[in-house]
Amino acid sequence: MAEGPRYRMNLRRRQEGKTDYRQRLKLLKSGKPRAVVRLSNRRIQIQFVRFHPDGDVVVTTVTSDHLRDYGWEGYGKNLPSSYLVGFFAGKKALDKGLNEAVLDIGLNEPQKGGRLFSALKGLIDSGVHIPHDPEVLPPEDRIKGEHIGEETVEEFEEVKSKLEEL
Q1: Burial of residue 142, with CB atoms counted within 10 A of its CB: 0-12 exposed, 13-18 middle, 19 or more buried
Q2: SS3 category, 80
Q3: Per residue in 60-100, pLDDT tens?
Q4: Is 17-164 in CATH node 3.30.420.100?
Q5: In 3-state terms, the chain is what percent helix, strand and coil (to 5)?
Q6: Which of 58, 64, 91, 118 could potentially form a cystine with 79 if both were Cys, beta carbons 3.0 to 4.6 Å apart?
Q7: Which of 148, 147, 140 is nearest to 83 (CA)?
Q8: How many whole angstroms separate alpha carbon 19 and alpha carbon 146?
Q9: Could you tell me the pTM of the whole model?
Q10: CB atoms within 10 A of CB 21
Q11: Contact 152, 75 (CB under 8 A)
């Protein structure tokens, strides 16, 4: 291991591969809240986070587990559930007075038409203004779940109508 007065250790979260500080600085310089989208093996989570010098402040959080309260029986991390989580998170953010944000995908690798951008589409459709390129958004038929089955499409429409009433 390198030693000496000129050697500088990386920050702990950088060493662990958890934080890209260059990307984080770019997002914070915008001055807008961040719409943080995180994917796990079982669910998707969206948080609206504001910067504060003492530590970031989470304004609102929605996971795919919250969709169960509105009748969603489907899988927790597919395209339709990602859209619905984004839509629900956007509605909650608007209730808290947040009408614009920047998308923070963290260390996730962006894939055109993927779950990250399905969640982004849900955020945009809820009324939150987020700068984006329309080419990365998935097609409407995949968002509704037509590639999965007719049951998913019906369930999607039912849950979305319940979320629109909020």
Answers
A1: middle
A2: helix
A3: 999 999 999 999 998 888 999 999 999 999 999 999 999 99
A4: yes
A5: 45, 15, 40
A6: 118
A7: 140
A8: 36
A9: 0.89
A10: 11
A11: no
